[in-house]
UniProtKB/TrEMBL annotation:
This is beta-N-acetylhexosaminidase. It is an enzyme of class 3 (hydrolase). Residues 167-517 form the Glycoside hydrolase family 20 catalytic domain. It comes from the Bacteria. Keywords: Glycosidase, Hydrolase. GO terms for molecular function: beta-N-acetylhexosaminidase activity.
């Protein structure tokens, strides 16, 4: 064949995209807008990465991206700051735009075969654009070894315009029932950020352990950070109970907490610390029995469940909590402090002469109102420090004209959604974390095949089906729903591997219902993106559940 024929054939094949990989776009959460194009942009050793001058935050985002790409590919791509550089070659550029439509977390990616342009108005937008680029690149971008030439470091051409549906996109972790080291917390935050969550709710204290160093009250960690043994298996009152006989404990020093907060910030993740009050407080009472209604002695709990020994609303108890929260606020600069409030039995208050006297004096009719008073005191004090409280939905029980929780208090709705919706109707902001959809400690597959978990069954599809802001809610209620959170309780999750197994891929479903416009949520489409998610998680060394291979057509 003549050279001319080869030339025309070659041109025809390249124009039709023949021989190119079929473009797939496996971004989770699915972007608000994605227009597929033909062709691919290929990163090479000579790709130019250009960013605006004088924007250090942007520079850091670009540097992290390039470091990851270089380490996976073996390239030595460098960044050029400033707009002077003109190049017709293969280029990735970051462009800051003043565009209100993008909000503080939105971004655009314009990807053609010779250039990618990323636009955002704020650094978080660039950060999320980079997370999307990671997910458009081959999953080997997360491989730990310098990758080989067999990987084509390319991105499918497309145009993406994206911003989140909800402002609060949270993932929670209970480190009280089981303790997890800083290295794991950082890995957890990496995965959060990769899926565009922006909040980590750190459940730091509970009956079974106090996990944060408080300088003024060292016994909180010295005594409350430890339990003498742990119940093996399920807890039912009627069952014979078996314990492992091993002391168990651990805590984070304040330096470690600061390090984690800094790390999270670099990934645009805010941490909400939770200090449980007035229930789930046995670890406090074990260390400082003087804050209980009876003389004690108390012990850090060795089994799971709800305990009737709780904090007593003495003045000295409020002073103690203010001291603790002062140190906590110093460590966590975010706007919210979670003060617990859930599952607080009232027997100890009923049997306490002090509580009965206080209720009479305050004209409170019952102990639920006394919990309201308790919450209202902390709420007022936290507000005076320029922060807001978050509480589990029980903080709205026991309405009383003399014990007002300010409308600034944010309600976390876990016993279904009704508590949250009621609070929203009363003008409170709310975060939805209904247990029947987004509690990731529930079974995700046939329990006969699964490790021991909390009772309920919440498979991936059910989690995915949840809509935190149904369209039929009045706008006045919708506007108070800040967002959604997946919660991860660790009674039966003793190791990082067990946590990852329960969390992934269900957290990916939650990421999508938090970020993606409801009209673009689509279960079959989500499942088509799962195989690539699994390869990404493999490369990241995440031990996710294999229960969903069978839903993949
Ligand atoms: C209820 S959710 C709790 C936790 C348990 C969880 C188990 C909430 C506010 N309280 O203490 O760990 O159920 O799913």
């Amino acid at each position: 064949m003549s050279r001319m024929v080869w030339f025309w054939l070659g041109l025809f094949l390249s124009l039709t995209g023949f021989g190119q990989p079929v473009n797939t776009y496996s971004i989770i959460p699915k972007p608000a807008g994605l227009e597929a194009r033909e062709g691919r942009f290929t990163f090479t050793a000579s790709t130019l990465v250009r960013i605006p001058a004088g924007q250090p935050e942007l520079q850091t985002i670009a540097e992290n991206f390039v470091r990851q790409l270089n380490s996976a590919s073996g390239f030595a791509i460098r960044i050029q700051a400033g707009s002077e550089t003109q190049s017709a070659g293969n280029m990735l550029s970051f462009v800051s735009v003043n565009d209100a439509a993008l909000g503080s977390e939105g971004y655009r990616i314009d990807c053609r075969s010779n250039a990618i342009t990323v636009e955002a108005a704020k650094p978080a937008g660039f950060f999320y654009a980079v997370q999307s680029l990671y997910q458009l690149l081959p999953p080997e971008i997360f491989g730990s070894k310098p990758a080989v030439s067999s990987v084509n470091w390319s991105v499918p051409a497309c145009r993406i315009e994206d911003r989140p549906r909800l402002n609060y996109r949270g993932l929670h972790l209970d480190v009280a029932r089981h303790f997890f080291p800083v290295s794991f917390i950082k890995k957890y935050i990496d995965l959060l950020a990769l899926h565009k969550f922006n909040t980590f709710h750190w459940h730091l204290t509970d009956d079974q352990g106090w996990r944060i160093e408080i300088k003024k009250y060292p016994k909180l960690t010295q005594v409350g950070g430890w339990r003498k043994e742990t119940l093996i298996g399920h807890y039912y009152e009627s069952d014979p109970q078996q314990f492992d006989g091993q002391p168990y404990g651990g805590f984070y020093t304040q330096d470690e907490v600061r390090e984690v907060v800094r790390y999270a910030k670099s990934k645009y993740v805010t941490i909400i610390p939770e200090i449980e009050t007035p229930g789930h407080a046995l670890a406090i009472l074990a260390a400082y029995p003087e804050f209980g209604c009876s003389a004690g002695p108390y012990e850090t709990a060795t089994k799971w469940g709800i305990f009737s020994d709780i904090l007593c609303p003495y003045e000295k108890t409020f002073t103690f909590l203010q001291d603790v929260l002062t140190e906590v606020m110093d460590l966590f600069p975010g706007p919210y402090i979670h003060i617990g409030g859930d599952e607080c039995p009232k027997t100890a208050w009923k049997n306490s002469a002090f509580c009965q006297q206080l209720m009479k004096q305050l004209k409170l009719k019952n102990e639920n109102q006394l919990q309201r008073y308790f919450t209202a005191r902390i709420d007022r004090w936290v507000n005076s420090k320029g922060r807001k409280i978050i509480g589990w939905d029980e903080i709205m029980d026991g309405e009383s004209p003399v014990a007002r929780v300010s409308a600034r208090a944010v309600v976390m709705s876990w016993r279904g959604t009704e508590g949250g919706l009621k609070a929203a109707r009363q003008g409170h902001d709310v975060i939805m974390t209904p247990e029947n959809f987004v509690y990731l400690d529930h079974y995700q597959a046939d329990r006969s095949q699964e490790p021991l978990a909390f009772g309920r069954f919440t498979p991936l599809e059910e989690t995915y089906s949840y809509d935190p802001v149904p369209a039929d809610l009045p706008a006045s209620v919708q506007q108070h729903i800040l967002g959604v959170q997946a919660s991860v309780w660790t009674e039966y999750l003793a190791t990082p591997g067990q946590v990852e197994y329960m969390v992934w891929p269900r957290a990916a479903a939650v990421a999508e219902l938090a970020w993606t416009p409801s009209g673009r949520k689509n279960w079959p489409d989500f499942t088509h993106r799962l195989p690539v998610l699994f390869r990404r998680l493999d490369n990241l060394g995440v031990g996710y559940s294999r229960a969903y291979y069978d839903v993949l057509a």
